[in-house]
Amino acid sequence: MKAFFEGIDYLFVNILFAPLDFLRSLELGSWFAANAINWIFMIICAAAMVYWILQLKKHEENGEENQDTTAHSFFK
């Protein structure tokens, strides 16, 4: 049973967390490079929000937006 848990320890510490160890060591040299993944995710989220807002605006201009409170059965 001990070998099973040591195997899990080896998997997570030495294999799955290796990229995070690399980022931690990279932070000492360049903060922006170490946080590049965060910047990429923020850009993707911002682009998705802009797309969603433009789609909402398009549907509202076409008159397809149903803002009646009885549009959903649980609002009755």
From TrEMBL:
Keywords: Glycosyltransferase, Membrane, Transferase, Transmembrane, Transmembrane helix. InterPro entries: DUF6341. The chain crosses the membrane at residues 32-54. One of its GO terms (molecular function) is glycosyltransferase activity. This is Uracil phosphoribosyltransferase. The lineage of its organism: Bacteria, Pseudomonadati, Bacteroidota, Flavobacteriia, Flavobacteriales.
